[in-house]
From TrEMBL:
InterPro entries: Ala_racemase/Decarboxylase_C (IPR009006), De-COase2_N (IPR022644), Orn/DAP/Arg_de-COase (IPR000183), PLP-binding_barrel (IPR029066). This is Diaminopimelate decarboxylase. The keyword Transmembrane helix does not apply. It comes from Siminovitchia fordii. Keywords: Pyridoxal phosphate.
Amino acid sequence: MERSIAGTVTNSPEFEHELLDHDSIQQLEDEHGSSFYVLNVKKLRENYQKIDKAFRSRYANFIIGYSYKTNYLPYLCKELSKLGAYAEVVSRLEYDLALKIGEDPKRIIFNGPLKTIDDINYALTNKSILNIDSLYEIDFVKRFAARNPEVEVPIGLRVNFDISQNGFSALQEGYKYSRFGICVNNGNLEYALTELNKMENIRIVGLHGHFSTKDRSLESFKIITQNLCTLAKENIMNSLEYIDVGGGIYGELPKPYDMFVPTFDDYAETICGIMNKEFSDYHKKPLLILEPGVAMVANVFLFIAKVIESKKIRDDYFVLVDGSVHNVKPTMHKNNLPMKIVRRNHDGSKGKKVFNIVGYTCMEKDYLASEIKDRLPMKDDYIIFENVGAYTIVFNPPFIKERPGIVAMDNMEFTAARKKETLRQFFNDEIYVF
């Protein structure tokens, strides 16, 4: 087996159980086209069980809310729901998807910075877990409470506080402050508490603290969890039902990445340790909510693209595949993903070339991988890109070609999870005017 890391191809023994050889891929191509995703259902279950065990073994009152925005493939969302995951959504579109696949609305966590009054009315009527993100939402909640005085209205607040470390920002891209949540430092949280407590039937039952950090460090989660616990005990202890630490933990990185990352057990030890300490004297400990996305699905998807041609331009080799950078790296970062080359012919040639793998779009920057050193892939070979489960499905734009199909693989049994788009679906005549 072969895997590309940082421009080289090496053995990948953990990949062997997939058994995706040239013949089996060719059979899948006959049905799904010359490029498609593969969802490893077994690996998805393993990820869920590992995260759940790490946290629940240390803090029993725990739930996972899967972050739909990371990859809202219905097949995947249903599988996670069957395992026990709640649906964590950040839009009405995602909320309605959760309902469509049969999720109990009481098991939907509705977050996000933009909610309409109809969204809030709907979520509260359905008794979903609702975390408001901004002050404008308070008026919507109060109106609902005033129209339904006999109904208890439970609300969570997403809070914003400083998580910098030693004077340096811990946020993605080095932003000084997070733009999300209700600010603790400028008095907005105090205002929100006062306004919501004016209504007798509103109960503030939880605090939410998701921050997108650049290093996903244990120290960041220590600061987040500690602040949430302190704020809850100071302000809503009599009504507290949950602490929601958000998501953003690392998943299991493919070997042999030369990078230390915390394990699920490391995160659980940090977060649950604080929860147990802060609520040790309480008969009923609050629920702990974790909202993983990348950690749950990044390593459960493969993208398989057929080689169309290998050509030489001046002294450089380019391998054209039926795929694009959008399929594997929608943010167009420069790192090479783990990959495997599945060859039609095993001619035993030892000659190696340095080559780039490029896509079907007309963009010069459409590089799926750069400066790979190995035997040059040839026409009708396949290249399997690993670790493509996070954001590739949801960020994949309708650009030049239709979206590829998705195949669910469960112990070498294959099921279509999304069909390859047709022209009619690409240009949906219910929304396009011809």
